Amino acid sequence: MVNSINFLLLFSLLVFAPFCHCKKKVGGYLYPQFYDDSCPKVEEIVKSIVAKAVTKEPRMAASLLRLHFHDCFVKGCDASVLLDSSGTIISEKRSNPNRNSARGFEVIDEIKSALEKECPHTVSCADILTLAARDSTVLTGGPSWGVPLGRRDSLGASISGSNNNIPAPNNTFQTILTKFKLKGLNIVDLVALSGSHTIGDSRCTSFRQRLYNQTGNGKSDFTLDQNYAAQLRTQCPRSGGDQNLFVLDFVTPVKFDNYYFQNLLANKGLLSSDEILLTKNQVSAALVKKYAESNDLFFEQFAKSMVRLGNITPLTGSRGEIRKHCRKINT
Ligand code: HEM
């Protein structure tokens, strides 16, 4: 039965693909049943290792979710973020958004090694990242969705892509929106996916400017609640303490819910890039209010936007490779 469904799916893809204008939009042929025959336990294995890691350290859910984002915004969702430097490869781990910040690589290694035992040379590191992002969301209380699969892994990395494509917390609203649009995502995706900041941490260095000198006049950001700012200043001094950690959602820091949006309405978003969703654009402000009011609407859109994020220019067919180790290309 499963086999005939797969056959039908493949048949219709082959027959109708030439007439389908959707190829570019969805970024290749990914589908949730991709490993049904070749590695039927893939989802179970990924989930159990992510669950173990999140039980050990709740923040890991956030770190894995972010890793998928930082992968997809650079050369597409191709696991380029996982490569270490070697030979001609300069690792994206050294880029400004990732240095001293991106984490979760050991968990991905553990998943990969379990999958290589179960079904050697079959599951890509890019698909592992995508599944781990979904599982992290579910494990912290967020929505679930079917993950289209079939990505392959890159043969290289791009540190310049990592520096330039991934939005910075002090970018303007327009710059951030442009960076999303360049990846085929829209303002709805921007607001919904920013809701990821309902879990996880930020370093002092990522928002210090807001506390001391937002516009260069030596004053703090007036869109940040002044009591909250004073509290943050005690742990994030004018100089030093760069790596000190702060929760992104101070109400429910390890629970995936819509408090992120409620916090924005109370002027208690941590990053400048968070608060400007409310203060710099009417369309995004309306979305912030909508998601603050309805957890269901947020969850529904988040799931859709995560699929769109995961569909950014994947390598499919015979492009790229299935890496044996996620940190290096096959030799
Ligand atoms: C809209 C533009 C975005 C900007 C400017 C931004 C920026 C940041 C920054 C500066 C941090 C803290 C990093 C640190 O200080 O070490 C962070 C953390 C995080 N970001 Fe974003 N982000 C954006 C969008 C996203 C998206 C789309 C996702 C996921 C789909 C995401 C998921 C996360 C998560 C989960 C964390 C916490 C990570 C951890 O605790 O390890 N962010 N982000």
TrEMBL record:
Annotated site (Transition state stabilizer): R66
Main location: secreted
Cofactor(s) the record lists: Ca(2+); heme b
Localisation per UniProt entry: Secreted
Binding-site residues for Ca(2+) 1, renumbered to this chain: D71, V74, G76, D78, S80, E92
Keywords, in A-Z order: Calcium, Disulfide bond, Glycoprotein, Heme, Hydrogen peroxide, Iron, Metal-binding, Oxidoreductase, Peroxidase, Secreted, Signal
Gene3D superfamilies: 1.10.520.10, Peroxidase, domain 2 (1.10.420.10)
Chemical reaction(s) catalysed: 2 a phenolic donor + H2O2 = 2 a phenolic radical donor + 2 H2O
Residues annotated for substrate binding in this entry: P167
EC assignment: 1.11.1.7
Protein name per Swiss-Prot or TrEMBL: Peroxidase
